[in-house]
Amino acid sequence: MCPASGHARRRPMALVPAPTIALAAAVAVLLIALAGAYGYHRDELYFLIAGRHLAWAYPDQGPLTPLIAHAMDLLAPGSLTVLRVPSALMSGLTVLMSALIARELGGNRRAQVIAASCTAVASVTLFVGHLLSTTTLDLLAWATVTWLIARIQRTREGHLWLLVGLIAGIALLNKPLIAFLLAGLGVGLLVAGPRELLRSPWLWGGLLLAVAVWSPWLLWQGQHHWPQLKVSSTIAAGGSGSSQPRWALVPFQFLLVSPVLAPIWVAGLLALFARERLKRHRSFAVAWVFLALVFLATGGKPYYLAGMFPVLLAAGAIETDAWLAHGARRREALLWSMVALSGLVSVLLALPVLPARDAALANSTNSDVGETIGWPELVREVAAVYRRAPRAAVIFTGNYGEAGAVDRYGPALGLPGAYSGHNGFGYWGPPKVPPGPVVAVGANVRELREFEGCRVAARIENTARIDNDERHEPIYLCTKPVAPWAAVWPHLRHLG
Predict the structure, then answer these.
(1) Do residues 350 and 389 share a domain?
(2) b/e code 146-156 from CB counts within 10 Å (16+ = b)
(3) What is the pLDDT of residues 387-437, one digit of tens each?
(4) Radius of gyration of the chain (CA)
(5) Nearest to 378 by CA among 261, 469, 316
(6) Global pTM?
(7) Distance between CA 297 and CA 381 in Å, rounded?
(8) Domain end point (choices 330, 356, 382)
(9) Is residue 477 part of a domain?
(10) In which domain, by residue range, is 391 found?
């Protein structure tokens, strides 16, 4: 103990056991090795186009992930592997963060390795690390903020609140979700303490810094009438492909790491509530309960809670380490066999290790797998319909994934850029051409009312026969829009 302040002895911030570094590197290498399999996810296709329309915000996200996508595409145009390298590296860092959190909670070297191992084999870690997504950066940001706050709780190094604020502000430029973490931890400190941290001027300085970094996003949203709120309400109503019923939010947590490793994070949650040695970190347990209730009430997606797994696994790893001390080799063999089993299942379900035609099982448990299959075939069908138009047609799509696919694969087939009313694409239209033929991809009944003479010219299929959001969707060939594009465009725009 420090005699002057009574605070815990300070330790170097970044010292972790060599096995955890090896684990983090292995996760990153595995993800990079498999990054080029299957194909782009619909969101990645959207990020690439959004990166060509750089702004401080978009209706459904901040600028950070599109900026990363644009930078990677400039570095290696058309390379899916290079596009996904940042996600692989971020997932590796998240593994390291789990070990660092365990260290701050008082875990020894074995506990740190257990925490890192469970994070490394978690299905959510591998899946979001395989794709360039806003969630990958969010998981790393939540883990880093959690680590820093755990250190502040242990050492009272108040100046670290400024680093918390900077990281949170950057994460807010990715997506607003980390604001819920900050709110949850605030409630946790108020309920469980240590409450004196709430009186630190460093904390309030950190919050001001976060808001300052985030302010361009706030200004853009305000100028555009807060479209993010509309997107969020649509998600809460189940309008997203990855939405789940509200009742499934908590049960789904048992799948996001691994069912057989769930006892570890559950033990961590209970230990944060009950163990005297973890009393100063009890705010994390209160924050988890608070966030679960908030996301249940607001219709949040199950993965919104995934950012809490590093601290829960870290606390659970300490409990597991103590459990191993009383069972020697038999218990240790059981633990590592469960880690290995979890890793094998997570790889099979989250990563493209099987041929696309054999991905049906993975797609049935994680529908995002299907969203990485079939885009080149979709664009070839669009090209075939486009060539049947009497003259140059406008390509209009029902969602941003279809529009992004046409923009990615269409130039090689002689296609013009696509238009869509969906989210950011709605801000980048309308077409600046006179009314003429329209190839409408996956248009719904409401959108078809804005076009004349529409007939089904083809239906979308993929050779892998994988059910995804596009399979069997119609491609229409229409005579023209019912009015000039500028007049019909407001009716074609939609958020969700």
Answers:
(1) no
(2) bbbbbbbbbbb
(3) 999 999 999 999 999 999 999 999 999 999 999 999 999 999 999 999 999
(4) 24
(5) 469
(6) 0.92
(7) 42
(8) 356
(9) yes
(10) 374-492
